[in-house]
Design brief:
The protein is mainly alpha-helical. The protein has twelve helices and three strands.
């Protein structure tokens, strides 16, 4: 053996095993694409709607007809709400970088927070934190839910926290989306404890906070998604999924009837430079 050379013995030889990365979502090979255990081309395309597929991907189970109707109603309710900051951000970004459609959509989605889009998640999580601690939730009457709601509102008030899903900057008296979602949930037998608790909060909160606020559409969407047994950690993701369609619409309109240049000029021409401030 050459000087300085180490002879590897059998004991020192280890067999390298490549790690495995398991997924239930999908895979592909040279001739096929598989998704959720189905063949995309043969089993899904033209047979499964996008809403159904989104629900299936997130939950791991195929929705019933009633669950799908409520789920898609929620997505439609969240798709757009006019010239919100998210839509304006998307329009301004495409004006600045017209080659970056993905950047414009991302810019709009990044604004999904506690005031816009995030309310869906915040409300669903708030309601779920209460519902999950109620062993007899399925047997509660409206009066029972009212008692639970009063306790929740009182606790929130004492903690100095804001109740998610109450009030709206535009719909001061009532949000037109709210009764529709409740009606569809009733019709499809998907109205569960989260929607029942949210309705009870709507009935009782004024007794404690001293004024009446509407249940907003984003909040009732969160309650409905939670009743559909979708993971509460993903609820904002569904709001973002819905709003993506709205942002694409805004960008399509921006290409034909742009407003971003005027917004830029308005701010730029009215900017006040004050180095002392």
């Amino acid at each position: 053996m050459a000087e300085g050379r180490h002879e590897v013995t059998q004991d020192e030889t280890t067999q390298y095993e490549a790690p495995q990365f398991r997924t239930r979502i999908g895979t592909s090979d040279a001739t096929s694409i598989s998704l959720l255990g189905q063949d995309v081309a043969a089993d899904l395309m033209g047979q499964v709607g996008f809403g159904e597929l989104a629900y299936w991907l997130a939950s791991g189970r195929r929705p019933t007809a009633g669950q799908l109707r409520l789920f898609e109603a929620v997505l439609v309710s969240l798709a757009d709400h006019g010239f919100t900051p998210t839509a304006i951000a998307a329009r301004m970004t495409i004006y600045s970088a017209p080659e970056s459609i993905q950047g414009a959509i991302a810019a709009g989605l990044l604004g999904g927070g506690s005031r816009f889009l995030g309310v869906t998640e915040d409300t669903g999580k708030f309601l779920h934190s209460i519902v999950s601690g109620l062993p007899d939730a399925d047997r509660l009457s409206d009066d029972g839910w009212d008692d639970v709601a009063r306790a929740a509102v009182q606790q929130s008030r004492e903690a100095g926290t804001k109740l998610p899903g109450l009030g709206h900057p535009v719909h001061k008296a009532s949000d037109p989306r709210t009764p529709v979602i409740y009606r569809i949930a009733e019709e499809t037998s998907t109205l569960g404890p989260h929607l029942r608790l949210f309705a009870a909060i709507g009935r009782t909160h004024s007794e404690i906070i001293g004024r009446t606020l509407p249940l907003n559409g984003a909040g009732v969407a969160g309650a409905a998604l939670a009743d559909l047994q979708l993971p509460t950690a993903l609820l904002r993701g569904f709001a973002i999924l819905a709003r993506t369609a709205g942002l694409i619409g805004h960008l399509a309109e921006e290409a034909i009837n742009p407003v971003a240049p005027e917004i830029y000029k308005l701010v730029d021409r009215n900017a006040v430079y004050s180095p002392e401030s």
